[in-house]
Amino acid sequence: MQSKNHSGAAPYAVEKPDTEWQRELTPEQYRVLRAHGTERAGTSPLNSEHRAGMFRCAGCGQPLFNSGSKFDSGTGWPSFFAPLAGAVGTSNDGALGMQRTEVHCSACRGHLGHVFPDGPKPTGERYCMNGAALNFEPAAAPPAEKKV
Ligand SMILES: [Zn+2]
Question: Catalytic residue numbers?
Answer without folding.
Answer: 128
